[in-house]
Design brief:
homodimer, mainly alpha, Glutaredoxin, Glutathione S-transferase Yfyf (Class Pi), Chain A, domain 2, four-stranded mixed beta sheet, 10 helices, 4 strands, 6% strand, disordered N terminus, GST_superfamily (chains A, B), Glutathione_S-Trfase_N (chains A, B), GST_C (chains A, B), glutathione transferase activity (chains A, B), Glutathione S-transferase domain-containing protein (chains A, B)
């Protein structure tokens, strides 16, 4: 599959900025992609800030889009375009970008680090993004929150009582393990994109469930996790980004603050 | 991160069978890993069929396990051990195995195929495994089905009406696109692990929602998807595997058949 004319065309087309295709006005899953690009100081465009950016998103996910010669159509954003390559799925985009941006070990015969970082990122996204989203949409993504509010209350209560501590405890354990290396990071003693994903997800659940997170942070049981959060937040490029207007406010996306879903 | 003594030890330790660490008595998410190994005729061991296999699973996911020098602890099975490498997360294990077993393009500078296959596999797992699971556990994984039966009915109805056709229609569109190449497969004109994942998930939803799937198949709108399903099922090694006692029956796992959740 490798040595086709198109693969050659592709290689020479990579010396161009990354293009992030994502909904305007929510940080959403696109935010993970942005944090990698920002931390690395990479050149990129972002439909969230482009005139008619939403049209680009809608054209990609149109039910008539069959993709192109090289790329299957994407089901949903975030979508990354880089030269001839167009890919979707948050953890997949991060996997592509991570080694290129110095935020994960290179993919090589003699280094399996990327699979460890990918596992950590997938686990963060499962527990602190997908499951957090489902607390306000437990029945169906296609229904309004108001139409599943009672189910949401039950779901959020279980999430805060059981799932949040389970995931926070897991990452605390990862940080205590030897494979995490020295310093505040999850893997190998260096910042990887798994750390950026964990930062963003903690930031999101802090917004959604401020009371619960305050209690969990205050318990001291997840010291390493919150130290990692602070360490990412203080990185110069991330700090500059978070203060810029490129960083969008949480609203009606994955992380929503409904006081009735938080603990008292 | 690459050139450490441990990375070298790792390389020489790879000439050993794969070890799948997964719950006994359900196909579950471990089944995706098995199908790759079976299709490739790879040597592997499986805790599902080992005496005390469950102890191996429980030791890995124990709340005191901190992993080892190289590997963070896994949160949940499936877990793959290969020499010194130990990784978790279904799509991550498939990503590791796919290129090694000839079921995905090799990861190389001049070939981005692996990211397209990974995106497809992630999308299948999202829509036809994770969401299918949530139809019988919409409120909390930690509660019994009986304690969320009414919510499950509502969730399954929405899933069958909206999500199943959305995902089947998406994969039909992928199959119509040029990037799928010739033949019945999703990407590049060759069998990849994304096809095996789609096969297993269709098989699972057929078990869970037989009436709905019969109607959807009969509609003719997803002809390519069901042809792919049949094409995988007829591959000699898969056929032999499915008839063997290594293939476990569906029961109380991701795919469950509750007649009240299916359509009439």
């Amino acid at each position: 599959m490798a040595d086709t004319p198109s693969a050659k065309r592709q290689r020479s087309s990579k010396d161009v900025p990354y293009e992030l295709i994502y909904w305007p006005s929510i940080p959403g899953r696109g935010e993970h992609v942005r944090l990698l690009l920002e931390e690395a100081g990479a050149q990129y465009t972002d439909t969230a800030h482009a005139e008619d950016g939403i049209k680009t998103v809608l054209a990609q996910i149109d039910g008539k889009n069959l993709g192109d010669d090289l790329n299957p159509p994407p089901l949903a954003p975030p979508i990354l375009k880089h030269g001839d390559l167009l890919i979707s799925q948050t953890p997949n985009i991060l996997l592509y970008l991570g080694p290129r941006l110095g935020l994960a070990p290179k993919i090589a015969e003699d280094d399996d680090g990327i699979y460890r970082v990918n596992a950590l990122a997938l686990t963060v996204l499962d527990g602190l993004s997908n499951e957090a989203h489902d607390t306000h949409h437990p029945i169906a993504t296609g229904l309004y929150y108001e139409d599943q509010k009672e189910e949401s209350k039950r779901c959020a209560k279980e999430y805060i009582a059981n799932r949040l501590p389970k995931y926070l405890g897991y990452f605390e354990r990862v940080l205590k393990g030897k494979a995490s290396g020295e310093g505040p990071w999850l893997y190998g003693g260096s910042l990887t994109y798994a750390d950026l994903v964990l930062f963003q997800c903690i930031d999101g659940v802090k917004f959604a469930f401020p009371n619960a997170l305050k209690r969990l942070e205050g318990s001291g049981d997840y010291k390493g996790v919150f130290e990692l959060y602070d360490a990412v937040k203080e990185r110069p490029k991330i700090k500059e980004y978070l203060a810029s207007d490129r960083r969008q406010k949480y609203s009606e996306g994955i992380y929503r603050h409904y006081p009735e879903l938080d603990e008292e």
